[in-house]
Amino acid sequence: LLAIGLTGTLLHPPLAGDFYQIFPHNLLAWMFGSVFILAMGLLMAGVIRFWREISPGMPRSSDIAEASHNALTLKYLDGG
Questions:
Q1: What three-state secondary structure class fits 3?
Q2: How many domains does the chain have?
Q3: HSE value, Cβ hemisphere, 13 Å, CA-based, for 72
Q4: Of 11, 22, 28, 43, which is the most buried if we count CB atoms within 10 A?
Q5: Is residue 79 part of a domain?
């Protein structure tokens, strides 16, 4: 329909076998590029939503302090 609107007719003798005269390369690149960008945006939105759903959140300051103390005193490196 877009080709009919742009050229007035879909096929006429000079354009009968020339695909890129009916649908120019830039038109096709724009159409498929916009669909690709939309698909990538939707995939990225899904990944972000998934990532937020499975993330455990921020640790509490008491947990950070305990982990730091255990690491600095080498508490769990006593050889078992």
A1: helix
A2: 1
A3: 6
A4: 22
A5: no
Structure tokens, 15: 């354009």
Tokens of 46: 């899904």
- What are the pLDDT digits (tens) for 13-49? 565 677 887 788 999 999 999 999 999 999 999 999 9
**Token pair in block for residue 13:** 């003798």
User: Using alpha carbons only, what angle is made at residue 11 by residues 5 and 15, rounded to the nearest 5 degrees?
Assistant: 105
Using CA atoms, how far apart are residues 39 and 20, in angstroms rounded to an integer?
A: 25
Between CA 20 and CA 23 the distance in angstroms is 5
Question: 2: how many CB neighbours lie within 10 A of its CB?
Answer: 10
Residue 41 lies in a domain: yes
pTM for the complete prediction? 0.52
List the one residue out of 21, 18, 22, 20 whose CA is nearest residue 1. 22
Q: First-to-last CA distance in the chain? A: 76
Q: Find the domain containing 7 and state its range.
A: 2-72
